[in-house]
Each structure stands twice: as C-alpha cells, then as structure tokens.
Amino acid sequence: MSFPSSRPRRWRRTPALRRAVAETRIDPAGLVLPVFVRAGLVGARPIASMPGVSQHGAASVAALAKQAVSLGVGGMMLFGIPETKDAAGSAGWAPDGPVPTALAAIRDAVGDELVLWADVCQCEYTDHGHCGPLDDAGRVRNDAALESYVLDALAYARAGADLVAPSGMMDGQVAAIRGGLDDAGHTDVGIVAYAAKYASAFYGPFRDAAESAMVSGDRAGHQMDPANRREARRELRLDVEEGADALMVKPALAYLDVVAEARSAHDLPVAAYHVSGEYAMIAAAAERGWLDGEAAMREAVLSIRRAGADLVLTYAALDLAAARS
Ligand code: PBG
User: Fold this and answer.
1) Does residue 1 register a pLDDT over 80?
2) What does pTM read for this prediction?
3) Which letter does DSSP use for residue 172 in this model?
C-alpha cells in the first residue's frame, strides 16, 4: 500500500496553521468606505436597496468617520446629493455643496487619520442624470464634461480631499483634472482613475442611493462594454500616461480578470470597487437566511484582494474591520 508523501492538509489542521500560511489578508487600512452625503439632511436615512447603508448629513458623516478611524478603516469615498439639480450639474462644484461640506466636517473630526476620496462625476448633479452636459442627440459632450470635472475636482481639493476619483469615463479626464489641479497649486492631490469602468447592471442600488438614475437612456456610450478585456488594457495604459496615481477597476467581482490584469501590467496601486449590486446581492440573500452574510462578504472581498487589488472600496468596510478586531 502506498501513501502520498506530499500532504497539503498538514497546513490546514488548525486555525493557527491556516493563519500562518494565509497568502492574502483583509487589512482594514486598505479598505475604503463609500459614503452618500445629502445636502440639508439631518441624521442618517437608510437606503432600502442597500441594507446597512444610509445617506448622511454633515454631523452624522463626521460621526461615521470617527467610527471608521476607531476600526482602522483606511479611507472614505464621498458621493454627494445636492438640494437642486440643473442641466449643467452646477451644484457639483458649489463650494458649499454636500461633498465640500462633508469633507470639511470630516477633516475637523478626524484630521489626517482617514484618506479622503471624492468621486468626481456629474450624474448626481444634472437634472437628466447623465454624467455631463448633453448634445442635441442626448449624448454626453465629452470635452464639456471635462470642464465640469475640473471645477468639481478643484472644489473638492480646496475642501480637503486627498484624492479625487473621476468616474465619468470621459476620454482625457485624468489629464484634464491633473492640469486643472496643478495650475491651481494642488499638486499634492492625487487622482485615482476609474480606468476600467464597465456599463454594469450592478450599479442599480447605487442609483437609488445617490438619486442619480437617468431620466432616459443609459451609459453604454461612455462606460465600457462588459465583453471587453483587451480594451481595458488600453484604458488602463491611457490613464497611466495621463498621470493617474492609482488605477481602479469597477465593478470588482464580475471583473476579477481585469483586476489581475491591472496588477500584472502596472506598478501603480490598484483599487477595485465592490459595487452596490455586488453588496446588495449578498445582503439580500443574508436577510432571507439563504447564506451567511458576514462570511460571504469576507470571501467576496478576499477574492478581490487575491486577484491583486491593494485597495478595496466596499460598503462592508466597517463590518469587515469590526469582525477582524
Ligand atoms: C457615478 C458612479 C456610479 C457608481 C460610482 N460612481 C454609478 C454609475 O456609473 O451609474 C456606482 C457605484 C456602485 O454601484 O456602488 N458615475
């Protein structure tokens, strides 16, 4: 009778043995919590399609930031919902808009202990819900949108953002924002490029949360086709050339091959966005008792780390950090 001499199970016998050889970990410092701040809101208002996630006013977002710091979470990414919307989305760059107000309140509360990211896009601020001003055919005008993004980025940089993250998928957005920030002296503010952002059905709950659903049409004219991987390589390379400080892939779970590609082809930090629908699927199944929500969320985020992401944006950031400590 012959027995195997190589026995991988030796390393799996006890939790301590397994922990010792774990190749990937979820370090709270690499987690980023996306947060919705709404102008004029007092307190927090739960979002029905994202169990456990709320919209926040300035005071409640500052309290949330303190909680994030106490759990060791690395950063927060802000999305704003303005009081009024117009065709140009001018509330996006208002100095007293929801994002600049929240950035100032958070800095006041936690100083430099959190990395503050500000999403840059116009879809929350336009009355038609598209990511920039439209032409007569209803398409987003690329270069006009860039001008708005520069104004947004400047407003967020002035209010204390460490990083701005353009998510509109307009051509040239990283170069335009880099130029605008540098000309205004904000050379220290970094740009996390949503380099490979797909036109995904998994953004559904976000559009409730950010009140950014389109009145008509879709975003397939600027966001990427889910069928394409080679094209992602090109988008990633262009954003590196334009001066990005980190590369983001979004969504994360359905695009782990693209996360791995970004990691192997580039030496910048790679971020991946575990988006609203990816979060909500697990949260909804857990509510029904169909799976263990905490374990499934951990496994999902671990898989994103294993694919090569240094930074993971996830609505489960606080829960994951709390479970760890
Ligand atoms: C804005 C933006 C979206 C998300 C992040 N930034 C929505 C969209 O492109 O329609 C989605 C995030 C999520 O689903 O969690 N352009």
Assistant:
1) no
2) 0.96
3) T
